[in-house]
UniProtKB/TrEMBL annotation:
The keyword Membrane applies. It comes from Halopseudomonas oceani. The chain crosses the membrane at residues 6-23. It comes from the Bacteria. This is DUF2897 domain-containing protein. Keywords: Membrane, Transmembrane, Transmembrane helix. It holds the Pfam family DUF2897.
Length: 57
C-alpha cells in the first residue's frame, strides 16, 4: 500500500478515536432542566392512565 494509504488510514483511525474520547468526556454533561423533567413525568403518567383505561375495556 502506498504511503498516502497508510496516512489516510491513520487519519481515519485518529478521527474515530478522537470522537470516542470527546463523547466520553461529554457523557455526564447532558443535564435536563427541571421543567423538561416535569413535562416528561406528566406525559408518562398520562400515558400510563390511558393504557390502564384501555386495559379495562
Amino acid at each position: 500500500m502506498p504511503w498516502y494509504g497508510w496516512l489516510f488510514m491513520a487519519l481515519a483511525f485518529g478521527s474515530v478515536l478522537g470522537s470516542l474520547l470527546l463523547l466520553r468526556d461529554n457523557a455526564g454533561s447532558n443535564r435536563v432542566s427541571p421543567e423538561t423533567l416535569a413535562k416528561v413525568k406528566a406525559r408518562e403518567a398520562q400515558l400510563k392512565a390511558e393504557e390502564a383505561e384501555e386495559e379495562k375495556r
